[in-house]
Every structure is written in structure tokens, then in C-alpha cells.
């Protein structure tokens, strides 16, 4: 039963218009809206929905990871688009927020609702 159709993930945002602009314009993703929810069409035919929630509370963990072939290039590109990368106390990160010492290189940032996203370069 559960193996017959694709699965998808979802999380909330408190301002769908801001979320749409961020995901479409800043990140360059294909974003559609249906029944008041956003659909992010991702590489490989994957999909994530973002639904409105007035009492939204941002996740304290990474809700969406974007694999990139070159994390330095991807961080630089998103920084020019206004994305600020997170810094975490006690975590070894370079001056741009990239952590390289405990696994594949990864850098975290937030969407307008405060949800944590990442860029990760598979090894």
C-alpha cells in the first residue's frame, strides 16, 4: 500500500506569500500554489508542501536538505541573493558558516518562517 505512490514531506509557514517569494525568487525553485498551500517541485521528481499556519513555530531541526555539487559555489551564490547562513556555537564552521569536520560539508540557513534548510555536498 505505502509503496505504490510517491511520498512527500511538508512543513508550515506563517506567511505563504513571503515563503513563495523566497523559494521561487531567492532559491530559484519551481513553486506552485494549490488550495492555499505551496508545492515545491524539486529535482528528481520530489515534492514538498508548505502549508499556512497562523500559530506556526519554526522547526528546531533541518526540514529540507539541498544536495549541491560544490558547496562553496552554492553558498556564494545564495549569499549574493541575500541568504544569511547560520552559525552554531561549538560547531566548527568556516567564516561563511560551512561545517566540514564531521561529515559531508554542510551549511544551514532559514526560510522567512524560520524553518532550517541546508546545502550539503555529498562526499
Summed up, what is this model?
With 123 residues, this protein is α/β, with parallel strands linked by helices.
Q: What keywords describe this structure?
A:
123 residues; alpha/beta; four-stranded mixed β-sheet; three-stranded mixed β-sheet; globular
* Radius of gyration from CA coordinates: 15 Å
Write the element-wise H/E pattern from the N-terminal end onward. Answer: EHEEEEHEE
Distance between the termini: 34 Å
The percentage helix is 10-25%
- Beta content comes to 25-35%
Q: Spans with pLDDT under 50 lasting ≥5 residues? A: none
What layout of secondary structure does this protein have?
Blueprint: E1 9-13, H1 16-26, E2 30-34, E3 37-41, E4 47-52, E5 62-67, H2 71-80, E6 106-110, E7 116-120
Parallel strand pairs: 1-4, 5-7
Antiparallel strand pairs: 2-3, 3-4, 6-7
Amino acid at each position: 500500500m505505502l509503496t505504490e505512490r510517491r511520498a512527500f514531506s511538508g512543513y508550515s509557514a506563517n506567511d505563504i506569500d513571503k515563503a513563495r517569494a523566497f523559494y521561487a525568487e531567492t532559491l530559484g525553485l519551481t513553486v506552485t500554489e494549490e488550495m492555499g498551500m505551496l508545492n515545491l517541485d524539486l529535482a528528481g521528481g520530489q515534492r514538498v508542501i508548505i502549508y499556512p499556519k497562523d500559530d506556526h513555530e519554526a522547526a528546531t531541526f533541518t526540514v529540507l536538505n539541498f544536495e549541491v555539487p560544490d558547496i562553496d559555489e552554492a553558498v556564494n551564490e545564495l549569499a549574493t541573493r541575500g541568504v544569511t547562513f547560520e552559525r552554531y556555537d561549538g560547531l566548527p564552521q568556516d567564516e561563511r558558516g560551512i561545517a566540514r569536520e564531521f561529515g559531508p560539508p554542510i551549511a544551514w540557513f532559514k526560510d522567512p518562517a524560520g524553518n532550517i534548510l541546508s546545502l550539503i555536498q555529498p562526499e
